[in-house]
Design a protein that fits this description.
2 copies of one chain form a homodimer. Chain A has 11 helices and 20 strands. The first copy, chain A, is an alpha/beta fold and 426 residues long. Chain A has 2 domains: 172 residues, Acetylglutamate kinase-like (Carbamate kinase), CATH 3.40.1160; 170 residues, VC0802-like, CATH 3.30.2130.10. In chain A, the strands form 4 sheets. Chain A has an 8-stranded mixed sheet, with helices on both faces. In chain A, helix 2 packs antiparallel against helix 3, helix 8 runs antiparallel to helix 9 and helix 10 crosses helix 11. The radius of gyration of chain A is 24 Å and the shape is globular.
Chain lengths: 426, 426
């Protein structure tokens, strides 16, 4: 007997029928002899509907009240899921984030979990009940106000709760079969990854892979918690995110490949600061201005200074959503820093190759550049970590770049068979 | 400066536009210099929609989970109302029943308030904020589970909170202008009552008047709290429920009439137990059987025994919704008690005349019977209290009975002008 934490997203509980299907799945797990704690998101479009309602009464709703409003979404889904489980003859009890002991800081809309004190969940499990917990929400340590965790918050709730309960595994149910070597909508021959290390998964999430949120992976890594990402529409094995070797269903240890996958990201823009005086401290001034606007930069390139002019250009990428405020902040600082002009470019794409094996295989970057050159794809910026290699290309060549790299590193499924993306076409 | 508790029902906050209208009203009250605490119900049909959803996943949802689900309704309305107030430039903070300190027993679906500890509400008011509190809900003292108060629960929340905060007045906003001498849909010449004592209001509520719930009036009476029932669609004075004399807008003390109003009730049925042995203890056996089924009886009549047979008939009224279970319980007990048969009659109506002046005017019942006799309306059962006189008639003569009594006691509006029922025809 083990303790399993399962997380079901909004698309898995979109309507009453889906809720009943998920309830059967949970009851099956319970009947296999496991203790089960379930984290659930709001049903389908509930959150969007609530945001629409808020916008009808207020142009800029106070963040505290928006959190109060949005948390009604999981309250509905968790109670309905508990009812559906009860209708199958198992005892289930639902708990809000606050009742489950999800303690956060006070930053409404993107609160961080400070502590998890799941006394009531433990008690419910000890009584043999299935515990259903609202994802995405917590309670502020200082003000006792209700908070939400922001994007990917339900995954983070599940992993944090699993860690606090010392669960054996955290299963993240989604509408795809797991993590793929690339987005199958771009690369039809992409393969499902059987196992990936948390370090690689972190780089994948940071590089634009959408299945797991960065913060959730960080949490799992910190607590050394195995995460199993799988589809709620099938019973296939999904992807294990764990640093321990896992056994395949045939009992063999799954071998770790050099390259795990190719991620891509269309959400970034590039700002170029043109004609910056090539003096010590000027780059620092620019990035202080951007940092003061609370904008996270990604890649940075400083051009080699032209000896004759004494001026240089500095380019960096950032989320498109922060583009306007970064441009405003830099424009205000133009006179003080003394640069010539700004250029804004939102027609870029980023492709990243991720694999722990890169550490011991120095030829990876050369192989990647060669493949792109052969396909006539121009590289505009480069950044690397120990286990990741990221490039910026024109947005219209991004899909090509992903396919070329995927093929070059032998990631295409060997039998040429198309991998089904998702179980029901949702 | 005074402290005002206002309660708005679901029809007053049915959609975004209504919420904005109510927000303006609240802000107006605040700007007049009052501290304002608002209790709000779920928006429009939200509660019914949530019950529909529950029924889709479970034939008999667990009461704990149904309460968890339904409380999402006020969570939405209170957050949206707080946003609408903030959009008008006033600070507002919403609180769940639990956060507002509404402590109840553990009877899900019809919990009773045990205590109110509104520390967070007081703090919010002290900071100059408008406090918005979810009606209808609380938290169980023993299990810390979320509870709901059942029908009329938001009114009870408002009155209980007003008592705990030592508010100067509790304003109950509804879609009619206050309490009327009879239901204006039946008696077009019914007048709005300016003031009614809590004792009379208790009898009105118990006799079928729908505007205020019995439990809420009991609470107001216990804490000697003035309640002002008025329309959220107009700025007219409504009805004051208070034992203190109130002044009219012209400064004169409003005189207390002998009769306050005529209430009616179509929700009851009559059961007759036929051929009961006329021996001591037989009536007690019958009512023990009914009480064991947790059914509240209203009126009881025992016929005079026919000397020859040694048998008698016993009739009583009860809510129609309890009819089936009462019949089942009595049928099971037939052999033990030894009665002949049961008759069930749901074609009855009850009309009640209420007035504190009855105590000192002994002719009231004779006057009432004479008026009904003249109209050819048969009286089937009678019950009285110190300030109430109730009669059972055939259901199809109930409306006539209400009109005849209303006229006989001089309650028709003197100028013959039709009183508008409600402000917007809702």
């Amino acid at each position: 007997m083990s303790l399993v934490v399962q997380k079901y997203g909004g698309s898995s509980v979109a309507d009453a029928e889906s809720v009943k299907r998920v309830a059967r799945r949970i009851v099956d797990t319970r009947k296999q002899g496991h203790d089960v704690c379930v984290v659930v998101s709001a049903m389908g479009d509930t959150t969007d509907d609530l945001i629409d309602l808020a916008e009808k009464v207020s142009p800029l709703p106070p963040a505290r009240e928006l959190d109060m409003l949005l948390t009604a979404g999981e309250r509905i889904s968790m109670a309905v899921l508990a009812m559906a489980i009860a209708a199958l003859g198992q005892e289930a009890r639902s708990f809000t984030g606050s009742q489950a002991g999800v303690i956060t800081d006070g930053v409404h809309g993107k609160a961080r979990i400070i502590d998890v004190t799941p006394g009531r969940i433990k008690a419910a499990l000890d009584e043999g009940h299935i515990a259903i917990v609202a994802g995405f929400q917590g309670v502020s340590q200082d003000t006792k106000d209700i908070t939400t965790l922001g994007r990917g918050g339900s995954d983070t709730t599940a992993v944090a709760l699993a860690a606090a309960l010392e669960a054996d595994v955290c299963e993240i149910y989604t509408d795809v079969d797991g993590i793929f070597t690339a987005d199958p909508r771009i690369v039809p021959s992409a393969r499902q990854i059987a196992r990936i290390t948390s370090e690689e998964m972190l780089e994948m999430a940071a590089s634009g892979a959408k299945v797991l949120h960065l913060r959730c992976v960080e949490y799992a890594r910190r607590f050394n918690l195995p995460v199993h990402v799988r589809s709620s529409f099938s019973h296939r094995e999904g992807t294990w995110v764990t640093d321990k070797p896992v056994e395949s269903t045939q009992g063999a240890v799954v071998e770790q490949p050099i390259i795990s996958g190719v991620a891509h990201d269309r959400s970034e823009a590039k700002i170029t600061v043109v004609g910056v005086p090539d003096k010590p401290g000027k780059a620092a001034e620019i990035f202080q201005v951007v940092a003061a606007a609370e904008i996270n930069l990604d890649m940075i390139v400083q051009n080699v200074s032209a000896a004759t002019s004494g001026l240089t250009d500095i380019s960096f990428t950032l989320p498109k959503t922060d583009g306007q405020s970064a441009m405003n902040a830099l424009n205000r600082a133009q006179e003080g820093i003394g640069f010539e002009s700004l250029r804004y470019d939102d027609q870029i794409g980023k492709v990243s190759l991720i694999g722990a094996g890169m550490r011991s295989h120095p030829g990876v970057s050369a192989q990647m550049f060669a493949a792109l050159a052969e396909a006539g794809i121009n590289i505009e910026m480069i950044s690397t970590s120990e286990i990741r290699l990221s490039l910026v290309t024109r947005a219209e060549r991004l899909d090509d770049a992903v396919r070329v790299i995927h093929t070059a590193f032998g990631l295409d499924s060997s039998d040429g068979e198309a991998v089904v993306y998702g179980g029901t076409g949702r």
